[in-house]
Design goal:
Strand order of the largest sheet of chain B: 2-3-4-1-5
Strand content of chain B: 5-15%
Distance between the termini of chain B: 65 Å
Strand order of the largest sheet of chain A: 2-3-4-1-5
Radius of gyration of chain B: 31 Å
Helix content of chain B: 40-55%
Shape of chain B: flat
Strand content of chain A: 5-15%
Structural class of chain B: alpha/beta
Number of strands of chain B: 8
Number of helices of chain A: 32
Largest interface: A-B, 71 and 59 residues
Largest sheet of chain A: 5 strands, parallel
Order of helices and strands of chain B: HHEHEHHHEHHEEHHHHHHHHHEHHEEH
Oligomer: heterodimer
Distance between the termini of chain A: 53 Å
Structural class of chain A: alpha/beta
Chain lengths: 715, 446
């Protein structure tokens, strides 16, 4: 940037307004990274819209899931502030030690998800119970002093703001610099409640109690310094008569940590009630149910992507929030890198519109899709020609295929649910306990070809009548919910089967009586020799095998054949569907790289094969080793791998000098070869300190002129 | 009433009234009064009262000072996050609200003394001023010169002032290295069973006879006296359980005189209370609710806090925790034996040094470096795990969950050290969920 000034000095450049707007424009950013070109803005809007619906859905889901525990908590707090002192007689009230009501909120180890819960708790409390809520985090409360200050800041500060809103912010009850103690809080609270209890004020509404409680929330109890917490509770207990204090402990592990953190002398000051939240795996199942196992959202992760997301959840963090973030990343990547994602829209009309507007180039990319080529190959020759030459015809076919894909999804999920409902309670659950497992299996390949499916079917064919009927009724309920024609037909058929089962009940008694009582048992009674016995036994076996099936068994087989047919027709993997690439996101490796980063491996790769990142042909070697033209750091790293736990610096330097001389093309016979000059020395020192910075070595006092290795392995 | 409170400096009727307020502590109060002397007389500079929790230390001293209308200031050390706060409180109570504003920001001890000396002649008292400091054991953690100054404050401010320190621990534990002025020491013994009975029986329920209540207290003490002598707790427990005790009376099944039946009725409940509500495993509100419910249905016993010991963890976190447990409780030299395929036989007796032969579980967890944790982790986990950032972050989240503890060490970045902070039962429950037989890998159980 330049100025018109002649003199030297500091100049302030304010960024122009235009420029700022440009940087904040995400659309440009999106289209810049896009490789599709022309329809990038359309893809961006589609992506944004879809993400917003997903977000809304998840948020409402979150509220739904939290509601129960939050309501319980709210009820508890309301009850506390109305007080057991009022309900019990005066004698009990006098005799009871005054305990601080405390809610222990067990939220599970998925700490990143907790913020949302606490936020909604705070909002809920402020709306319906009390304006005085203070949320504390362990990292801001290292000492009792800072804890106190935070409590006062949160309580008095928030109220001060409120007063300013009411345009009477002249009296700040808490002057800055005064000691932060509960006594100060007490005074503040007294003036506050006096104020609000004076008649003619807006704030003293009926539903708000005259003395609203003060709720102090400890977000992460485990991380608090136990000493600080104990002291704080001791102080609180001295003021509990004057201040209606209520504590909330957010616990990540188990409630017994309270007993570990607080000694009896402190915990006896608390009246703890336990609230347990939904486990995070259940939470995930509901989220999956709403976001993935539905045809409402056109965007689908394929089996591998889903596997990556689920395994990150189960193996690493248990965090639903991170799961949804991963899904968002996949969504963004899909719209960014798949030019055909313009066709991936929520509404049918939009799909039609976007298909008609497809450019020639877009159609060409459709023609190049593997699934589409497979589809073309199955067509008649003249149809093939038409598809490959006429754009108009192509568009029509695309519309049809997309509609088919939509229908496929509409049938896929109900059938999946039915199959899961049938198999989830089988012994040893061959097809997985969770529906997501079954879903992934189905996405991976033809489920009916799997051994697990066969064994599940076999188990189903052995079910007793009541169980089978119960499961089938469950299926019926699932099918009732969906509206596609095929599912209607299936529902009718299922209804028919169920009716037959019921009629069987009435007809059965007579048939059962006369069928079974045949002779084999009688023939056993005769005295026989061994040979004859064997013969009769064989006969009996034979008769048993060919034994006529009872009415129930026939019907059961029929019902299961029906289910099997449903599975075979609707649970085909999406890869078989033409144009599935439009909806399915498949680059799981990319997702894994982004979400489950492996910094150590990256550094290792960079050091052992610098070509991987630098892409410089001079660095290529045949045997995969490090060429001697590689950066100094790589050479030093390679050499250090050959050493033991302690590395002699001088030997290392010598080796380094030899390698570098070879790279300079010096004659191995000459005297200069392998000699350490100042430049090499400096380069070596720099490389070694970089290696130390990366954490591969450290200085040691065990031996002079040696450094210690911090990694194992090597050559 | 064994002995009555007598002192020439005070009105006997008032003393009688005071004595009634402190049953079973008249002897201590008498000693205290005689130490304090007549109001106008100079008193001893500092008095140290000690005794267990709820033996009436604060009660006696506060009642005396309040009822005899002596000028005094009471501060609790737990509240005083800074010394300034304590000074402010003292000045406020002794000389009125204006004086505390004279103190500068973060006042030093000499500021306090200076202002005290300024103020004392302005409002001359012809009575001894008292400064009562509760939970005085916390003074030791404050400035090192604070305690020595407080015990001889009288000399320093040149005023008739006495500092009374209250503590639960003995004076020997207070004495600083440099030595200091010795206060007069007065011990408050625990209440005996008879004392407790006498004190508790005073809280008569208005709708029942004193005899009945006293019988109830007798039963209560019979159960709880062996575990708890804390008056406050006992009173709390009495309040919680008295309604249950009276239940048969209300229903008219039993007469008041039939103590045996009443005892039979209440005893199991009290025993249960000892295991639950006394330990605050079940909160007192829940306990009361349960008492009301049991009439309708005996089942649905309340689960206490300790019943929910189960912790859900991500898969790799479980293995990390298992690895940490193994690293903490196995000697490092035995790792070869457990995690190498061809380790050869190692006899337990010859192999180990003498001190390693004692059970490691008796000695507690030992620290281990991160490298060892990861090495064990990779050999116990059944699949190949990429050393991703989230594996490392799980270690630190285990630390924040207090399942592992990080040890203070000079080399935090390169070679941090940890200890495993979970018990054997916990780790067994965890390893059962991942089908890992941890006992096989523990050297102690070989």
């Amino acid at each position: 940037m330049s100025t018109s000034s002649v003199s030297k000095g500091c100049f302030v450049f304010k960024p122009s307004a235009k420029k700022r707007r440009k940087t904040s424009d995400i659309v440009d950013y999106f289209s810049h990274g896009c490789d599709g070109g022309e329809d990038s803005s359309l893809r961006y809007t589609l992506c944004k819209k879809l993400w917003e619906t997903i977000k809304e859905e998840t948020e409402s889901l979150q509220d739904e899931l939290n509601r129960q525990i939050l309501e319980g908590l709210l009820h508890f707090i309301k009850r506390c502030c109305s007080g057991p002192r009022h309900t019990a007689g005066p004698w009990e009230a006098r005799m009871r030690a005054s305990e601080i009501p405390t809610a222990a909120l067990v939220l599970g180890v998925n700490v990143p998800d907790h913020d949302m819960t606490f936020q909604s708790l705070c909002e809920l409390l402020q709306q319906s119970v009390t304006p005085h809520v203070a949320c504390l985090q362990a990292k801001e409360c290292g000492a009792l002093k800072s804890l106190m200050r935070k409590v006062l800041e949160r309580l008095v500060g928030s109220a001060a703001e409120e007063e300013e809103d009411e345009e009477e912010g002249d009296t700040h009850p808490h002057p800055k610099g005064a000691h932060c103690t509960l006594a100060t809080l007490c005074e503040w609270y007294e003036t506050k409640s006096k104020k609000s209890s004076t008649p003619g004020k807006k704030r003293s509404s009926e539903e708000e109690p005259a003395r609203p409680p003060i709720v102090i929330i400890f977000k992460d109890l485990e991380a608090f310094n136990p000493r600080v917490l104990q002291d704080f509770i001791l102080i609180c207990s001295r003021y509990v008569e004057q201040l209606p204090l209520i504590l909330v402990f957010g616990i990540a592990t188990s409630p017994s940590t309270i007993q570990q953190v607080l000694p009896h002398s402190v915990s006896s000051l608390l009246c703890i009630e336990l609230f347990q939240s939904l486990s995070c795996t259940q939470h995930l199942s509901t989220v999956m149910d709403k976001l993935i196992l539905t045809h409402h959202f056109p965007f689908k992760p394929n089996a591998k992507v889903l596997q990556v997301l689920v395994s990150i959840f189960l193996y690493h963090d248990f965090s639903v929030r991170n799961f949804i973030k991963g899904l968002k990343l996949a969504l963004l990547e899909h719209y960014l890198n798949q030019p055909l994602s313009v066709l991936c829209c929520e509404k049918k009309e939009e799909v039609e519109l976007n298909t008609t507007q497809l450019s020639h180039r877009g159609l060409e990319s459709v023609r190049q899709l593997a699934s589409f080529r497979r589809y073309v190959e199955q067509q008649q020759p003249q149809e093939q020609v038409a598809l490959l030459t006429s754009d108009q015809h192509m568009k029509e076919t695309c519309k049809k295929l997309l509609k088919d894909l939509y229908k496929y999804h509409k049938n896929y999920y109900p059938v999946l649910r039915c199959l899961h409902a049938l198999t989830r309670s089988l012994p040893r659950v061959p097809l997985g306990k969770q529906i997501r497992e079954l879903h992934i299996t189905c996405l991976e390949g033809n489920v009916w070809e799997r051994e697990e499916y066969r064994s599940a079917m076999q188990l189903l064919r052995m079910l007793a009548k009541e169980e089978l009927l119960r499961e089938l009724r469950g299926c019926q309920e699932i099918l009732k919910l969906c509206r596609s024609t095929k599912m209607r037909v299936s529902l009718e058929r299922l209804q028919e089967l169920l009716d037959q089962f019921e009629r069987l009940d009435e007809a059965k008694p007579e048939t059962a009586a006369n069928e079974d009582m045949t002779s084999p048992a009688k023939s056993m009674e005769k005295k026989t020799d061994l040979f004859q016995l064997q013969k009769t036994l064989l006969e009996m076996k034979e008769t048993r095998r060919t034994k006529k099936l009872s009415g129930f068994e026939i019907l059961r087989n029929e019902a299961l054949d029906f289910i099997d047919a449903l599975v075979r027709s609707h649970l085909v993997p999406p890869e078989t569907q033409p144009l599935h690439e439009v909806c399915y996101y498949s680059s799981s490796a990319l997702l894994r790289r982004h979400l489950n980063a492996t910094p150590r491996t990256s550094i290792q790769t960079a050091l052992s094969s610098p070509y991987h990142y630098l892409q410089n042909d001079a660095l290529l070697t045949e045997d995969g080793g490090v060429s001697n033209a590689a950066p100094d750091l790589c050479i030093v790293h390679k050499l250090h791998l050959e050493c033991g736990r302690l590395i002699n610096l001088y030997d290392w330097l010598e080796a380094y000098a030899t390698v570098v001389s070879a790279a300079e093309g010096k004659d191995p016979e000459s005297e200069e070869y392998g000699k350490v000059d100042e430049l090499k020395h400096a380069r070596f020192i720099q490389a070694v300190s970089e290696l130390q910075f990366l954490g591969f070595i450290k200085s040691t006092k065990q031996k002079t002129d040696h450094v210690a290795r911090l990694t194992w392995g090597g050559c | 009433m064994t002995a009555s409170l007598q002192h020439p400096g005070y009105d006997p009727e008032r003393l009688l009234c005071v004595a009634e307020k402190m049953p079973c502590r008249v002897a201590q109060a008498g000693t205290l009064l005689s130490l304090m002397g007549e109001p106008a007389q100079y008193s001893y500079p500092s008095i140290f009262l000690y005794g267990h929790r709820s033996t009436g230390k604060s009660h006696v001293i506060n009642t005396l000072l309040m009822d005899l209308e002596l000028p005094h200031a009471t501060v609790s050390c737990v509240e005083c996050v800074s010394v300034g706060l304590m000074f402010e409180r003292v000045l406020l109570a002794l000389f009125g609200p204006d004086t505390s504003t004279l103190l500068p920001r973060s006042p030093s001890l000499s500021d306090f003394v200076r202002i005290y000396r300024q103020q004392a002649p302005l409002s001359p008292a012809n009575q001894t001023r008292y400064i009562v400091i509760e939970k005085a054991e916390l003074l030791r953690d404050m400035d090192s010169n604070l305690l020595p100054v407080l015990v001889r404050l009288q000399e320093l401010v040149d005023d008739n002032v006495t500092v009374i320190l209250l503590s639960e621990i003995v004076w020997d534990r207070f004495r600083p290295n440099t030595g200091c002025f010795e206060p007069l020491i007065l011990y408050f013994p625990d209440y005996s069973k008879g004392d407790l009975q006498q004190i508790l029986s005073q809280d008569i329920h208005p709708s029942y006879s004193p005899e009945l209540y006293s019988a109830f207290i007798n039963i209560l003490l019979g159960v709880f006296y062996s575990v708890c002598r804390d008056l406050r707790e006992l009173r709390h427990l009495a309040a919680l359980n008295f309604s249950k005790f009276c239940e048969p009376l209300k229903e008219g099944k039993v007469k008041e005189s039939d103590t045996h039946k009443l005892w039979r009725n209440i005893e199991p409940h009290l025993k249960k209370a000892m295991q639950t509500v006394y330990l605050r495993d079940v909160s007192s509100v829940q306990w009361e609710q349960q008492l009301q419910q049991t009439e309708e249905k005996e089942c649905a016993a309340l689960k206490g806090l300790s019943a929910h010991a189960h912790v859900e963890l991500p898969y790799y976190s479980k293995f990390l925790l298992i690895a940490a447990y193994l690293a903490s409780y196995n000697p490092a030299r035995t790792d070869r034996r457990f995690f190498l395929k061809h380790h050869g036989k190692i006899k337990k007796t010859n192999f180990l040094k003498k001190h390693e032969k004692t059970s490691n579980h008796l000695l507690g967890p030992k620290p281990f470096p991160l490298d060892r944790l990861l090495a064990i982790f990779y050999s116990v986990v059944d699949s190949r795990v990429a050393p991703s950032a989230s594996v490392f972050s799980q270690i630190s989240s285990l630390v924040t969950l207090q399942l592992l503890t990080q040890l203070g060490h000079d080399d935090q970045l390169d070679a941090p050290k940890y200890k495993c902070a979970v018990a054997l039962d916990f780790i067994r429950a965890i390893s059962r969920t991942v089908n890992f037989d941890i006992v096989k890998y523990l050297y102690d159980f070989l």
